[in-house]
Amino acid sequence: MSYTVTESLLNDLKTALMGRKLRRGTDVEEVVRTTLKKSIYEIVAQGAGLDLIEAVKVGPKPYVIVFFGINGVGKTTTIAKVAYMMKKAGLVPVVAAADTFRAAAQEQLEYHCKKLEVTLIKGKYGSDPASVAYSAITHAKKVGAQVVLVDTAGRMNTDADLMEELKRVVRISKPNMRILVLDSLAGNDALNQAKAFEENVGYDGVILTKVDADVKGGTILSVAKELGKPVVMLGVGQEYDSLVKFDPEWFVERVFS
Fold this sequence. Notes:
- It is found in: Cell membrane.
- It is a peripheral membrane protein.
- The protein has 257 residues and is α/β, with parallel strands linked by helices.
- It is built from ten helices and eight strands.
- It has helices at 3-17, 28-44, 52-58, 75-88, 105-116, 129-143, 160-173, 188-200, 218-227, 248-256; strands at residues 63-68, 93-98, 119-122, 147-152, 177-183, 205-209, 231-235, 243-245.
- An eight-stranded mixed beta sheet has the order 3-2-4-1-5-6-7-8, with helices on both faces.
- A hairpin with a 7-residue loop joins strand 7 and strand 8 (243-245).
- Helix 2 runs antiparallel to helix 10.
- The longest helix is centred in the N-terminal third of the chain and has 17 residues, at 28-44.
- The chain is elongated, with a radius of gyration of 20 Å.
């Protein structure tokens, strides 16, 4: 957890417990534990009601979601999982391979889209990623698809040129939702990434990957507390159906298990 979150939790404990009178025989450890659980829950519960499927169903069509994050967080696989989730909900997705930078990025998406029987719009390597996103949106309008999922090149939060490119993709595609994909194993570095992306392009929610690797969730707490952003979904495995909606109660129990 970040220092800010740690300090906040300690202050919550102080406020709730200092000077409090307890009945004789009360389990003090359990009182502290319950108070800490409540404090953690209040941090992660903010915005937890954000539902991707519901947002697409009630939002304008096609509903455009742009995904971004640094290299290696599992963004492309996450997009495939979201496409699977949309199809399962009876929605028709179109995927935009707007990562025209990384070698094999489009082939990786194409592999998933063929398996899922989802339309993929792509361009040549080195071409303008914003034009690929625009083409996908145009195609979705033409065929009546309800949602466009835009993949973008993984970029370090310190890469000014690629950040400018991402700003252009966002400016042209005018997304209804911007999702930052973070690696839950990255710890406080994930928070630094989140801050940089918020300053440059802004985002509406977070999807955390690799949560199945026995992560207690300091990243979730840090992002929720310091940036006030909802954690929308968690990646808990490699299969297409291993993307689950974030449940604050489940999370708190997991922290204490």
